[in-house]
From TrEMBL:
NCBIfam families the record matches: exoDNase_III, xth
Pfam families attached to this UniProt entry: Exo_endo_phos
Enzyme Commission number, as recorded: 3.1.11.2
Domain of life: Bacteria
Membership in a protein family: Belongs to the DNA repair enzymes AP/ExoA family.
Primary enzyme class: hydrolase
TM annotation in the entry: none
Organism: Salinimicrobium oceani
UniProt keyword annotation of Zinc present: no
Residue span(s) of domain Endonuclease/exonuclease/phosphatase: 4-249
Cofactor(s) recorded in Swiss-Prot or TrEMBL: Mg(2+); Mn(2+)
Entry annotated with the keyword Hydrolase: yes
Encoding gene (name): xth
Cited InterPro entries: AP_endonuc_1, AP_endonuclease_F1_BS, AP_endonuclease_F1_CS, Endo/exonu/phosph_ase_sf, Endo/exonuclease/phosphatase, ExoIII-like
Protein name: Exodeoxyribonuclease III
Length: 258
């Protein structure tokens, strides 16, 4: 099974790119982030024509997450949002059971400027995610958490790390929060297969970042022990970042023997 994550940076604005990539890559499951669209404006018909079922948790202008699954797969929404902050209305998390795998699709807050209220919200969101992640592991079922985590876990994951010391994506508190989740028993899929390689998933639109390969690795797959042993391949479709009118992220994917 090929499972991908892709921050599309506006599903309607990037729809031609998304559809072309789906045709070329043929993932079985896709987790999308930053839809920037309310539910009623999700391009449902185009997604169906591309051969996918979908569930989504949209939001006007910002945020939004979705999970797509090929027609032959069973997809059932399990829940949306994270417990712990009832007044939080940002659409950043959705879960689905696809066949026998529980998939959590997430779009973690950026957190800038840091310090500040947005950074505090990011850390609280990480705490809520950590609680949910532990609950999922305790269920002893195949689970993966994937999406835009907005964190570079180590210096290997960022071009010129010294320039990012005070950024909310790289501050020590944020990296510690990520590693705290991983330490529960999750496997970072990319680093399991490519422990030392320079791998990026995001390149800013400015300063020719893509051309210089001045990127960040902020889109991650975390696998439960049941899925970690089934991991066979992983990669980044970097070329998609070079397409016209594309997202500033590239799709990231893994292949599981299930």
């Amino acid at each position: 099974m090929k499972i991908a994550t892709y921050n599309v940076n506006g599903i309607n604005a990037r729809l031609p790119v998304l559809l072309q990539w789906l045709k070329d890559s043929e993932p079985d499951v896709v987790c999308l982030q930053e839809l920037k669209s309310p539910d009623e404006k999700i391009p449902k018909e185009e997604i169906i024509k591309a051969g996918y079922k979908a569930i989504w948790h949209g939001q006007k202008r910002w945020n939004g997450v979705a999970i797509l699954a090929k027609e032959h797969l069973e997809i059932q929404e399990v829940g949306r949002g994270l417990e712990g902050e009832p007044e939080d209305e940002q659409s950043r998390y959705i879960e689905a059971m696809i066949n026998d795998i529980l998939i959590g699709c997430l779009y973690l807050p950026n957190g800038n400027p840091a310090p500040g209220p947005k950074f505090d919200y990011k850390l609280r969101w990480f705490d809520r995610l950590s609680t949910r992640a532990k609950d999922l592991l305790d269920q002893d079922i195949p689970v993966l958490l994937t999406g835009d985590f907005n964190v570079m876990p180590t210096e290997k994951d960022v071009y010129k790390p010294e320039r990012w010391i005070d950024d909310a994506l790289f501050r020590p508190e944020v990296r510690q929060a990520y590693h705290k989740i991983v330490a529960q028993g999750w496997t970072d899929a990319i680093r399991k297969l490519y422990p030392e390689e320079t791998i990026y998933t995001f390149w800013d639109y400015f300063r020719n970042a893509y051309g210089r390969n001045a990127g960040l690795r902020i889109d991650h797959f975390l696998l439960s022990p049941q899925l970690s042993e089934k991991l066979r391949n992983a990669g980044v479709d970097k070329q998609v970042r070079g397409w016209e009118k594309t997202s500033d992220h590239a799709p990231v994917w893994i292949e599981l023997e299930v």
